[in-house]
Amino acid sequence: MTQHYSVVVERESNGTFSAWVAGLPGVYAAADTAAVAKRAIRSALAAHLTALADLGRSQAPQVDVLVLRYDPLSLRRRTALRYVGLGALMGRRTSKAKTAASRLNGRKGGRPRKHAG
Is residue 115 a part of any domain in this protein? Predict the structure, then answer.
């Protein structure tokens, strides 16, 4: 069974990077660069999962990953922070060509409609 683990990599005020796995206390790493912190947290998580397997236990992280979007131009404070889907983290990946093709194909894609002619 495939499991997914949410990892947070954060730049600290002193310039170092910290990384931890959300929902798994004690699985963390720190390094001078983000790349090294990412490698270190992968090793820390692997060691944690190996230790659990050796003990005959498994632990699924108990965490919900949420994204809050902040809109400073919102007229009301209540709507300045809104929950959005995880896709918001990935950004929009469309091009003019994709948009034109999508319009030709209709909303759900597929082949262009045949015109009665």
Answer: no
Contacts of 17 (CB under 8 A, 6+ apart): 9, 10, 11, 30, 31, 32, 33, 34, 36, 37
Specify the pTM: 0.64
Q: pLDDT tens, position by position, for the chain (117 residues)?
A: 678 888 999 999 999 999 999 988 889 999 999 999 999 999 999 999 999 999 998 877 778 888 888 888 877 766 788 888 777 776 666 677 777 777 776 655 555 556 665
The verdict on residue 44 lying in a domain is yes
Residue 94, domain member (yes or no): yes
| Same domain, residue pair 71 and 50 | no
Whether 34 is covered by a domain: the verdict is yes
Measured CA to CA, the distance from residue 29 to residue 61 in angstroms comes to 17
Q: How far is residue 44's CA from residue 37's CA, in Å, rounded to a whole number?
A: 10
